[in-house]
Amino acid sequence: ETMLRKIECYISRDSKEHMLKILSRHHLDGMTAWEVTGFKNLDAGSGITPETEDRLKMEIVVDEGVVEDLLRDLKLGFNTGTGGEGKIFVIPVEDASRLSTRETGRSAVS
Question: pLDDT for 65-110, tens place per residue?
């Protein structure tokens, strides 16, 4: 059986609708989002206090067969060449369970 992957994205709050359009094009039917605050320090040795930024953290668990195409579209869709656009992490998921039906694995997230 193929592995599940969690795609974790940190993006500007203004990019939410754009992100939802990309996810929709891939026919993904579930996503979780939080409003978060982070900081960046472009020059760690400068002694300047880091600036905080409001961000959106979005997570979706998908079959690994979707990951390559989804990452390509996310990278193309958000890469404008300016700093602070966000980050994407891909994390292995060993298993998943849907509590209401007791489904496990891939069927629990689709």
Answer: 889 999 998 888 776 666 667 889 999 999 888 889 988 888 888 7
pTM: 0.79
Q: How far is CA 99 from CA 24, 35, 53, 68, 81, in A?
A: 25, 25, 35, 28, 42
Largest CA distance in the chain: 54
